[in-house]
Design goal:
The two termini are 12 Å apart. Helix content is 68%, strand content 3%. The longest helix is centred in the middle third of the chain and has 35 residues. It is globular.
Length: 619
């Protein structure tokens, strides 16, 4: 009976009360469904402000278009990069459950709760201290958006001789303080919520792996659902009622998401933190370097490779050890790391196991794949910056309806909402039948398709910008603030291709990093998807500065500078992005063609372990 009860327990997982998670009671699609609903609300709150932020900065804070674009990309990049912190804390010290709850509280402006019940935060210890400081983020932005005295004087001039007065001094400090406090809360949520949902499924069964794959597809679908409301309803509120209302909606949405997340607590299973995976990585790298340097010493004898076996009967031990040994044998790739275990360590603290070495190899092998997705996310950064500003100069009327420029992302959002279920219900089952494989379309194939879409998107963006500027020149509107007689739907073309790229790449990256990463660092590995987005946004800012620096040195006027977008050479910038994306795709093909999935080997090991447990139960 004890053995039977033991097999009903999810090893390495606990429930929300820190008790062992039970098979059939915890985990599964029901638990993951709460995560999906919460993600709709969380992304709505985030994009409610981020999607329209570039226009807020240029119209109300009077930053130039290029400066506004850089501020937005740096803000969004920081928010996504901080997902690594959330993922690391979830793997090493806390759980994904705790990290989400704390991060949601950070993003939410608990003004009344903060005043009335400060003792509640004291119960959180260090987390409470951070919350008291960070919860002011949305509140700071809301106050600044509401009070004219905290913004520069109103200005509608596009003249270069009499430029608008840019926000400065304490007002600038207030703006950036609010932005980056919000970014900290967003990062924690992005780093904990996807792995929390993905770990609800049993990866030792084909059904569980298929459900997990569907979860990542519908996670992107839910991102789009939240984005749809953000870029339509909330953007309209911000443009017509005021930005303070937009920040208020974001606050209320985060407030609503917290009880919804807690409602699913009885169904969740949560991975027990296993200590810092970063420490293990550095130990293996240090041991390999030290042992390689000391390998020539004759006194340094070859040591026995550490191994671990289950203590059962002698026959069972030998059988299981032989099977497990095949899976834990040192691989031939990255051979310099093998000396971390094949050579006697120079210090006992540097003693490593084969499992630790192979896990570090896995991390190093996925890094080139991560690097190849940064350029794609640099292209996606244009959705929130120059593309919005392009649309703002065009005719945004659809019949009698005037569409806010920041609502342009509704086109890729709607496309993703249609394509995601279609991909999961039609394309993947068809691919499974054709290829006769469990996955149908591999993770790396999905990422590759997304990279190709990004190349096409940048070419389309360059052609559309050429057409837009030709219309402006033809009608003598290059120096005018009047809308151009060309519909903004032309810009929607590049949004459709970039939206397709986002669907294929983001879901592919998340599932790839989660399934390939060692169990002890899956939250951190999944956060690499957001880190790629962050580095893409940062790269966009860097490229703008480099392009302006280089073109300004050889021409009288840099490509991307000034308050008038019609004077920019944005089409040349887009062609440059197209070429760089093409080179990046070749780099990706080089590494993707050489990558060997570890998942199959892990599934074999899981099957062996299950077979061993079943035989033990029968005995």
């Amino acid at each position: 009976m004890d053995e039977a009860n033991h097999l009903n327990i999810w090893e390495g997982y606990v429930d929300w009360r820190n008790r062992p998670a039970i098979r059939g009671l915890h985990g599964g699609m029901l638990a993951a469904s709460f995560v999906l609903v919460v993600e709709i609300l969380e992304n709505l709150a985030y994009l409610a402000n981020a999607s329209n932020l570039v226009l807020y900065l240029s119209k109300f804070m009077h930053f130039s278009p290029s400066t506004s674009a850089n501020i937005v990309t740096n803000f969004m990049g920081t928010a996504f990069l901080l997902a690594l912190l959330g993922g690391f804390l979830a793997d090493a010290f806390f759980t994904t459950y705790c990290i989400y709850f704390i991060s949601a509280a950070i993003e939410f402006t608990v003004k009344q709760l903060w005043k009335l019940q400060p003792s509640l935060f004291a119960l959180w210890g260090t987390a409470g201290t951070h919350c008291r400081n960070i919860c002011r983020g949305l509140l700071v932005l809301t106050i600044q958006a509401h009070l004219p005295s905290l913004k520069p004087p109103t200005c509608a001039s596009m003249s270069t001789d009499n430029p608008c007065k840019e926000v400065s001094g304490g007002k600038t400090v207030m703006l950036f303080t609010g932005l980056y406090l919000v970014a900290l809360g967003v990062g924690g949520i992005k780093g904990s919520l996807p792995p929390h949902g993905a770990e609800q499924f049993d990866e030792t069964t084909p059904q569980g792996r298929k459900q997990r794959s569907s979860f990542f597809n519908y996670y992107v679908f839910c991102l789009s659902c939240g984005a749809l409301v953000a870029v339509t309803f909330v953007v309209w509120i911000e443009d017509n009622k005021g930005w303070q209302w937009g920040f208020g909606i974001a606050t209320a949405t985060i407030l609503l998401s917290i009880p919804l997340f807690l409602l699913g607590s009885p169904t969740y299973r949560t991975k027990v933190p296993a200590g810092s995976p970063i420490t293990t990585m550095f130990k293996v790298l240090a041991a390999a370097m030290c042992n390689n340097i000391d390998a020539r010493s004759p006194s340094n004898a070859v040591t026995t490779v550490p191994s671990h076996t289950h203590e059962t009967s002698e026959g069972e031990t030998n059988r299981h050890s032989q099977k497990k040994g095949r899976n834990q044998a040192l691989s031939e790739s990255l051979k310099f790391l093998n000396k971390a275990v094949t050579i006697k360590p120079v210090h006992p603290m540097l003693q490593c196991t084969v499992k630790q070495v192979e896990e570090v190899k896995i991390v190093l092998r996925i890094l080139p794949i991560l690097m190849s997705t940064i350029m794609l996310n640099c292209c996606l950064a244009q959705l929130s910056t120059f593309s919005v500003q392009q649309a703002a100069t065009m005719n945004t009327n659809l019949g009698s309806l005037k569409v806010p420029p920041a609502s342009l992302p509704v086109f890729p959002v709607l496309f993703i909402m249609i394509l995601a279920p279609l991909y999961n219900q039609v394309i993947v089952p068809f691919a499974r039948k054709v290829t006769k494989t469990e996955m149908g379309i591999t993770h790396l194939q999905r990422i590759g398709i997304g990279l190709m879409f990004s190349i096409v998107a940048m070419a389309v963006a360059a052609l559309v910008e050429i057409k837009r500027k030709n219309v402006a020149a033809k009608h003598g509107l290059l120096n005018s603030a009047k809308p151009l007689p060309i519909t903004f739907l032309w810009v929607a073309l590049q949004y459709l291709f970039l939206g397709s790229a986002d669907l294929f790449t983001l879901a592919g990256m998340m599932e790839f990093f989660f399934t390939e990463a060692p169990l002890s660092m899956r939250s951190l590995a999944t956060a690499l998807s957001w880190a790629s987005l962050a580095m893409g946004y940062y790269l966009s800012s860097v490229l703008v500065n480099i392009v302006n620096g280089v073109t300004g040195a050889y021409r009288h006027r840099p490509w991307l500078i000034g308050a008038n977008l019609n004077m920019y050479h944005l089409e040349r910038f887009y062609w440059l992005m197209c070429v760089l994306s093409g080179v990046n795709f070749l780099y990706y093909l080089l590494w993707a063609s050489r990558y060997e999935y570890r998942s199959a080997g892990l599934h074999d090991e899981d099957d062996d372990l299950k077979e061993h447990e079943n035989s033990t139960l029968k005995d």
